[in-house]
Each structure stands twice: as C-alpha cells, then as structure tokens.
Design goal:
Layout (H helix, E strand, L loop, with lengths): L10 H6 L3 H10 L12 E2 L6 E12 L5 H14 L5 E5 L10 H9 L4 E4 L2 E2 L2 H7 L3 E3 L1 E2 L8 E6 L3 E3 L2 E3 L4 E5 L2 E5 L4 H23 L4 H8 L3
Parallel strand pairs: 2-3, 3-4, 4-6, 5-7
Antiparallel strand pairs: 1-6, 2-8, 2-11, 9-10, 11-12
Length: 222
C-alpha cells in the first residue's frame, strides 16, 4: 500500500513509490494518449526501476567516423547530462552498444539517475553489479568507436510512437516504460497515487470475501 505523500516530497520521490501499470492507468483515466515505450525495451536488472525527469539524446550510425570524433562526441554527452535526470537516447541504430561500464559509472558518479536507450548495451554484469539502472533492447559487445556519432542533446526524440521531450518524466520498471508529459506530471502522479490506494482497499475487500463484481462496482478499479 502506498503511503500518503509527505509535504515537500518531490515528484520523482512520489513517482518512485508508484509502478508503471498504475501510471499507465492514470494517464488513460485522465484522457492522455498512451505513452508506453516498445515492449522490447527491458531492464538489465528486473529488480530496479528507473524514475525521473528526462534529458534526451540522439545519434546516428556513421561508418568510418574517426575514433576520436566518435568518443569525444560521446564524452560530451556524458558531460552534459544533468544531475538528477534520466538520460533517454534514440540512437537510430540496432547493431552496436550505446552504453557500457565506464559510461554508466561516469553517469552514476555525476548524479544521473539512470539510462534508457532504444538500442544496445554491453558490460551488463558490471553495470548490474554497480546498481545503475539501464533499460535497452539488446546486448552486444560491439561498441560505438568509429561507428556512431552523437547528433543532438536535449532535443525532442521519438521512440516507438511516443514523442519525448526533455523535462517529461519516465516511469520504467519490469513491466515496461511510460513517458509522462511534463505539463501533466503532477496530475498523473496524483491520480496514480489515488489508484494505488483504491487498489489496496479493493484488495482488502476481496481478501475479506467480497464478491469480485461487487468489489468492482464499489471501487471502480480492478
């Protein structure tokens, strides 16, 4: 059961106490477009969720790019990522890893909450053990050197059919990832908290023997 939010609790703290299903349902109930990311984007560690304000990055495959150019572009991305943010990357590529151990360690040390990419990751065991949340589509040992370039930082991106802007919020866990528009995040979090509390009350009623149909008619969730 979720506890009531304390005065001064940040949106990220409140959202961390929710889960993706409740956030998705809250957005639906508020009449917002479905904003769940493709189901093949999965956490390296299913026990870790990833929540917070989004900072976007985008790149492209570029065969034959100079090694220094590709790595300097990448390290500038790591330097620019704001503390307290979740980096969400659209690499426009399905062949190489767009996250690895040293990059994850760098982001973690710099206060970044986690990383989600519509692409690949390597050094999975190291990243999992350091406890840095990463969500990705696949794993591969191939890296970006001489093969990929950063194109834009902080600009709008699209993953699946979801438009994502810096300042939107991410709620990602083992069930999937949901993007909350910045302008509605307060409403969505409040509605998700309300739904979770109501679900807890329904669960208690069911466990006490209430008929499921009666429980639904009383609580209007299931």
């Amino acid at each position: 059961m979720i506890r009531k939010a304390r005065p001064g609790r940040t949106l990220t703290e409140r959202l961390t106490r929710c889960y993706s299903g409740a956030v998705y349902d809250a957005m639906r109930d508020l009449g917002l477009p479905a904003a769940s990311l493709p189901s093949d984007i999965r956490p390296l560690d299913p026990k870790r969720s990833l929540v917070g304000p989004i900072w976007t990055a985008e790149g492209r495959a570029e065969q034959g790019i100079d090694a220094d150019t590709s790595l300097l572009g990448w390290t500038k991305l790591l330097s620019a990522a704001p503390s307290g943010s979740v980096v969400v990357c659209q690499p426009n590529d399905s062949t190489i890893a767009h996250m690895g151990e040293l990059s994850a360690e760098t982001l973690r040390i710099r206060g970044v909450t986690g990383y989600l990419v519509d692409g690949g990751c390597r050094d999975t065991d190291f990243i999992t053990r350091m406890g840095f949340p990463v969500f990705c589509r696949y794993n591969t040992p191939a890296d970006i050197v001489g093969r990929w370039a950063v194109e834009a930082l902080g600009e709008p991106i699209v993953i699946g059919d979801v438009a994502i802007h810096t300042g939107d919020y991410l709620m990602a866990d083992v069930d999937g990832a949901v993007v909350i528009p910045q302008a509605r995040v307060e409403d969505v979090v409040a509605e998700a908290e309300r739904l979770i509390t109501t679900e807890s009350e329904l669960r208690t009623a069911i466990m006490s023997g209430m008929d499921p149909s009666e429980a639904y008619l009383k609580f209007r969730v299931f």
